[in-house]
């Protein structure tokens, strides 16, 4: 008898992203993947940084009240905003889910809630309605492990640490030094730890999905797995498992692709500090002259408002603009995945947000790492010292150092090994993602796992 392959047709998943670019992207990419497998996808989101439904007509979008005040949002205190979201959204999410459950058709029940680890209010609502839940972690296993270590070190009285310790290695956390620990620059240490502890608590969730890949993050994953009671599905890089539409909160300037088309193979250094980091006027000038003096073509994303004290690029010196002529191209926001996949791009100066890091690694693009805060410091260290796919610019922004780093990464013979390793890692990721590879298998297992959750819900409701 021929075996009938089970499909999740009609099963509905509710996804709850954290409202920041680096979290919205992987959650919507996961949604696109699960939709391609036959699940119907509902995105429940805050009004703050709400994703654009028009980019994803295949999903249903439902906004919930987030109760954030204008002063809190404009403070930019991400820890305070996330704590407030968890306090404010619990009731509105429960209400939203209850309404959805009441009007659901028998064949189209909500199988599972998949929530970003920082939107942990979702777990309580899922439990209340007896709906299984799964956590999405959008960071690396290395960073997750480092964050857990911060909590542990704090409980032993080692955090906060004195300045004299900042360059000391953290025991069991090679190659991180105390100054690389992912401690948030916003809010108090107590509030930061509160958020970390809550977001690390698996509660009654059935599984964890990680946007990482074992060929990169294996040792940290093994350590995490030891203490975890539920299955962990590493199915990253999520942006590579489907061709998801853009979920950018800012408009992408695609004119940079036409400019890239005119540049020589692997000649361009792409520069972006992500969606949150900002720099001052002095750093801007050092960056600008370092890039100009390197003589390499560059594509530079300068987000409006990301230079302290200016709206956009008013503070860039006039002589710099004259010096670079056509050799540099500046945009407010780029289609980054497309940029990194472009043949003209040979290097990425990044702040080492996890999405940017993964996007670069999966295209074989070596990196200059200039982290600003939190997880970025962990990733910069891993990129430069463990995976050895890039160089870290430590200390202050300085034009001479920047110029030398760009030339080493892009053209000089002493950067050859880094470029070769970057190419090799891209191939290893491709192998893992193709049929028969470990990442490929984990994706199928995840789909099976979620379909099996349906059976649990049905059993619960038919009792
Ligand atoms: N990104 C983009 N265009 C840009 C800059 C960034 O599309 O001009 C995307 C990038 O591809 C990544 C996300 O924004 O997916 C940034 O996330 P990441 O984790 O790298 O850093 P964060 O913004 O959270 O600091």
Detail the topology: elements first, then pairings:
Layout: E1 12-16, H1 21-36, E2 40-46, E3 60-64, H2 70-75, H3 78-102, E4 110-116, H4 121-128, E5 133-137, H5 141-155, H6 189-200, E6 207-210, H7 214-226, E7 232-234, H8 238-241, H9 255-261, E8 268-272, H10 281-294, E9 298-301, H11 318-324, E10 328-331, H12 336-341, E11 345-350, H13 354-362, E12 367-369, H14 375-386, E13 390-392, H15 399-410, H16 416-433, H17 438-462
Bound molecules: uridine-5'-diphosphate.
The site of uridine-5'-diphosphate has 19 residues, from α1, α12 and α13.
* Uncertain segments: 459-463
Strand proportion, as a percent range, falls in 5-15%
Bound molecules: uridine-5'-diphosphate
CATH fold category name of the largest domain: Rossmann fold
Tell me the strand order in the biggest sheet: 3-2-1-4-5-6-7
The N- and C-terminal alpha carbons lie at a distance of 33 Å
How many H/I helical runs?
17
| Helix content estimate | 40-55%
Number of strands: 13
Topology pattern, helix = H, strand = E = EHEEHHEHEHHEHEHHEHEHEHEHEHEHHH
For the sheet with most strands, the description reads: 7 strands, parallel
Overall pLDDT? 95
**Assembly state of the chains shown:** single chain
- Round the Cα radius of gyration to an integer and report it: 22 Å
CATH superfamily of the largest domain, please?
Glycogen Phosphorylase B
Enzyme class: transferase
EC number: 2.4.1.-
InterPro entries: UDP_glucos_trans
Pfam families: UDPGT (PF00201)
């Amino acid at each position: 008898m021929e075996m009938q392959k089970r499909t999740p047709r009609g099963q509905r998943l509710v996804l709850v992203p954290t409202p920041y670019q680096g979290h919205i992207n992987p959650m919507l990419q996961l949604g696109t993947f699960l939709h391609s497998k036959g699940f119907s996808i509902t995105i429940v989101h805050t009004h703050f940084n709400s994703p654009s439904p028009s980019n994803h007509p295949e999903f249903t979008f439902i906004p919930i009240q987030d109760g954030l005040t204008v002063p809190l949002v404009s403070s930019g205190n991400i820890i305070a905003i996330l704590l407030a979201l968890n306090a404010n959204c619990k009731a509105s999410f429960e209400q939203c889910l209850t309404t959805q459950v009441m009007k659901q058709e028998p064949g189209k029940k909500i199988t599972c809630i998949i929530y970003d680890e920082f939107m942990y209010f979702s777990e309580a609502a899922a439990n209340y309605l007896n709906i299984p839940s799964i956590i999405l972690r959008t960071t690396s296993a290395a960073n997750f492990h480092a964050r857990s270590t911060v909590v542990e070190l704090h409980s032993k009285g080692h955090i906060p640490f004195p300045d004299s310790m900042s360059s000391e290695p953290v025991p069991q956390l090679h190659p991180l030094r105390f100054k690389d620990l992912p401690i948030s620059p916003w809010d108090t240490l107590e509030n930061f730890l509160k958020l970390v502890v809550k977001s690390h608590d698996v509660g009654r969730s059935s599984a964890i999905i990680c946007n990482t890949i074992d060929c990169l993050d294996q040792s940290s994953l093994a350590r995490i797995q030891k203490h975890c009671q539920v299955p962990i599905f590493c199915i990253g890089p999520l942006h590579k498992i489907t061709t998801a539409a853009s979920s950018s909160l800012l408009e992408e300037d695609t004119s940079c692709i036409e400019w890239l088309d005119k540049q020589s193979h692997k000649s361009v250094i792409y520069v972006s500090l992500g969606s949150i980091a900002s720099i001052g006027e002095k750093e801007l000038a050092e960056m600008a002259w370092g890039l100009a003096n390197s003589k390499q073509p560059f594509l530079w994303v300068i987000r409006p408002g990301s230079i302290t004290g200016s709206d956009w690029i008013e503070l860039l010196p006039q002589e710099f603009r004259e010096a670079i002529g056509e050799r540099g191209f500046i945009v407010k926001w780029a289609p980054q995945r497309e940029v990194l996949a472009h043949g003209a791009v040979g290097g990425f100066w990044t702040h080492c947000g996890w999405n940017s890091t993964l996007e670069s690694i999966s295209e074989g693009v070596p990196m200059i790492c200039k982290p600003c805060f939190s997880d970025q410091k962990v990733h910069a260290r891993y990129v430069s010292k463990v995976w050895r796919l890039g160089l870290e610019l430590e200390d202050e922004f300085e034009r001479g150092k920047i110029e030398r780093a760009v030339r080493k990464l892009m053209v000089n013979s002493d950067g050859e090994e880094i470029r070769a390793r970057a190419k090799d890692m891209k191939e290893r990721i491709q192998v893992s993602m193709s049929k028969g590879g470990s990442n490929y298998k984990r994706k199928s297992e995840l789909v099976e796992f979620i379909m099996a959750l349906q059976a649990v819900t049905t059993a619960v409701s038919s009792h």
